[in-house]
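Researcher:
Attend to C-alpha cell order:
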Amino acid sequence: MSQDVWEGSESDRHGEGAADLAHGEGWHRKRAFSYETVLFGGVGLLKEQPVAMLLWTLFLMGTSFAVSCFTSPLTVGIQVAAAAMQLDPMIEGAVNQVVGMTANILFSLPVQQFCYAGLIGFVGHYLRTDEADLSLLFTNVWGGVRATLVAWTLAALAMAVYLPLGGVGFGVYYATDNVEFAALAVALSLLVLIPVGLLLLPLMLAMFSAVLDEVGPMEAIITAWQGGSGARLELFLMGLVMTVVSLGMCMLFCVPFLFVPALHGAGMSVAWLTYSRAEKDVDSWPFIQRNFS
C-alpha cells in the first residue's frame, strides 16, 4: 500500500527538503491551508469522483454504526453498575467520563482513523496519477495504523492538559462540598483550553502527514507543527466554513453532514500535498490544473 501513496524519491517527498517545509515558499505553499484550497479541493474531488466519495461516506457511516453497536452496551453496562454502587455524584460522573473516553480511544478512534487513512491514500494516488483506485479506500491498513498512533499520541497530550484542569473541580468540590461551585470552577478552568486549542490547531494536520508522508507519529506531529504554525487563522476559518456547510446541508436538504467528512478529508489531503510537495510537481498534476488554474 505504501507505494500507492508515494512513489517518488525520499528527497522529493517534501519538495525542496524537510527543512524547507516551514518556510511556505511559493504561491501554492502560501495558500495551501486557506479555506479556499481546502474547500475547492474537496469540491473538486466530489465533482470528479462522486462514486468514490459516496462509497467512502457509506463505509465511514457503516463502520461507525457497527462500532457504536459494540461499544454502547459495554459503556452503558459499566455506567449502570457505577450507578448501582451509589457512588459520590462527582465520582460517578468522572467514571462515566473515563468509560466513554476509553471506549472512544480504544475502539471508535482506530476505526475512524482507518477510514480516513483510506480516503487520504486514495486522494494522494489520484492527484499524482489521475487514476481512481477505489480499493485504496478500504485497504490502507498501515496508513490507518500510523494515523491511529498519531491520534493516540495527541490524545495523551490532551489528557495531560485535561486531567489537571478536571482535578481543579474535584479539589474545589472536596474543599467546599458544593457541587454547583465545583461545576463553575471546572467550567472556568476549562476556558483555558480555548487559547490552548487555537495554539495547537496545526496538529490537526499530523494525520495527513503520517499517511501521505509515511512517517511515525512524532515526525508527523513535528512536521504538522512546522506546516501549520503560520496558518492558524486559515485552519480556524476552514473549520468554521466546514461547520457552516454542514449546518447548511442539514437545514436546506435535511442531510446532516452526509458529504462533509469526505469534503473535509479530501480537501485537507489536497492542501497537505499542495504544501508539502515540490511546487513544480504540484503544478504538473492534472487535478490541480483543472481545479486551480
Remarks:
- Residues 53 and 262 are 6 Å apart (CA to CA).
- The chain is about 80% helix and 0% strand.
